[in-house]
Amino acid sequence: MSGLHTWAGLLLGWVLYAMFLTGTVSFFKEELSQWMRPEQPRLTQPLDPAVVAQRVADEIGRIAPGATQWSIKLPDGRSNTVYAFWRLPGGGQGARGFGQDLFDPETGHRVAARLTLGGDFFYRFHFQFYYMSPFWGRLLAGLAAMSMLVAIVAGVITHKKIFTDFFTFRWGKGQRSWLDAHNALSVFGLPFHVMITYTGLVTLMALYVPWGERAAIKTPAERQQLSAELNAFVQAGKPSGATVPLASIEAMVRQAQQRWGTTDAGRVNATNPGDATARIAVTRGDARRVSMSPDYIEFDGVTGKLLAVHDHVGAAAETRGVMYALHLGRFSDLETRWLYFLASLMGTAMVGTGLVMWIVKRRAKLPDPERPYFGFRVVERLNIASIAGLSIAMTAFLWANRLLPVAMAERPFWEIHVFFIVWGLTLLHALLRPAKAAWREQLWTAAALLALVPVLNALTTPRPLWHSLADGDWVFAGTELMCCALAALHAVLAIRAARHHRLGVQSGRKAGRRAAIAVASGEAAE
Amino acid sequence: MTTLLRRARTTGPLVSRIVAALLGGYALAALFSVAVLALPISKPQAVLTGQLASFAIYAGAVIWVFAVRSALKAWIGLLIVAAALAPLAWSVS
Q1: φ, ψ for residue A190 (rounded to 5)?
Q2: How confident is the model at residue A91 (pLDDT cuts 50, 70, 90)?
Q3: Can you spell out the DSSP letters for A113-150?
Q4: In the 8-state DSSP scheme, what is residue B92?
Q5: Per the CB < 8 Å rule, is A211 touching B33?
Q6: Taking a C-beta distance cutoff of 8 angstroms, is the pair A376, A520 a contact?
Q7: What ipTM was estimated for this complex?
Q8: pLDDT of amino acid A518
Q9: What stretches of chain B show up as alpha helix (H) in DSSP?
Q10: Which chain B residues touch A212 with a CB distance below 8 Å?
């Protein structure tokens, strides 16, 4: 069982580490996106979702008059932009039949800020990676999550004394300390880790286990029945061809708000807008509810009359809705989101310490610590690039956002290319330098890059940290102060790595001699 | 030749277990997700129930495969459960 834990953890450990860290950051993706669009002014007062919905709906009517369907994600107080997408007639095939953009909630016009994927890059990378099709990316993510689940269960079985171990922490004792750290992180976060791993699998379960659906769902009616249990998106019917303008979207959103009390409306979806058959669905927002199962009301788009209320789904669909919501944590207020962030960061550290432990444990058994075997070197180097290197690459993504020319062609993609180029360079560096030096240099580089983010921002935007603090702009100030805190964390790790490796190499040599003697005497006995 | 044989004898059961865990475990989870359709609940609910539970089945199967004494026992265990689920899955598809 110990072997299962080690190998299930190690083989996809690097992928898991990247998934954990980018997922952790994603709990603040809206805030990160705001920081990455410094031209877009911050929101100084709460917006009225009903007014914003009308504004953006009118704008989409101007931009894409022939759209057969559109969907507006209303502002929830965390974002200073409004995302919307629409489908054009004959669409459904490729990107041509599909449009999307960000809108300014104050004016309804398209956002004029620099083009960037913002925090959405880390969010998408978290479950489907990049430079590969989303299908294969998601399959790899599922395999990693599944091995995580197995590693957690096997880990609990392996460390039967895990709960008593939790209270015995031995600092500065090499392998023992790594194990203690790994145990402490695992036990403390165990409920969260089990939850986040399982619910992560649930978010993409239709892709991972399609067999029941294939066997049971055969007619279009059955498909619609299943789809109604999962999302609020109504498939557009055949348009009549008669052009009729839409009724007031604002009034419909107000009606929805009345129904849900203080809870904001989350989305407005339209099917066949501008046609006599138009339908509008106003969906309840994720905030203040612990489920993401569909909860929406449907209006006749022409008369504005309430047609239907869809506010409950079956037990299994509700279970899925709750699990989905638990994974994304969107229901949460700021305090809960911070708790999610910290628990998730501990999960990242749990994977990280596990990866490092593999090396520490085996170094002690090496016959010659100066010339380890090939597999050992591979793991060692991949550890450096995927732990310290990822921090550098993620920070480089922020740097690219500020340093690449604003008018550059394909700008959002170049920010991402920079992320991967820098990550690749950290791997190259890890391969070329001695392991000890590589750890130290990369952790210091990450610390420096993170610490300089506020300086970079002050030099490249008119929103320096002291202004943000004075204005109470907590999105900007918070992002930069977080970078400083992470810089301090990396500096501490760099100092500890330098100190630890001195100890590790010495004890490794001693253990190596002991092992050599043991092997020699073992052979003699045979 | 003898070293090759010896290596096969030591790594063979391990490879067998890995295959049993990776593929056998998934097959069992997939079979379960179809067998659930035999439950007296609506089709969409049954489909979702099967999907929700399948990961627990998969994880449980992997743990079982590595927990038992021999690779043969692991396979037998998987097959017994599969044999119980197969008629149910057959009846609905």
Answers
A1: -50, -50
A2: low
A3: SPP--THHHHHHHHHH-SSS-HHHHHHHHHHHHHHHHH
A4: H
A5: yes
A6: no
A7: 0.92
A8: 39
A9: 2-19, 25-35, 43-67, 71-92
A10: 33-34, 36-37, 46-47, 50-51
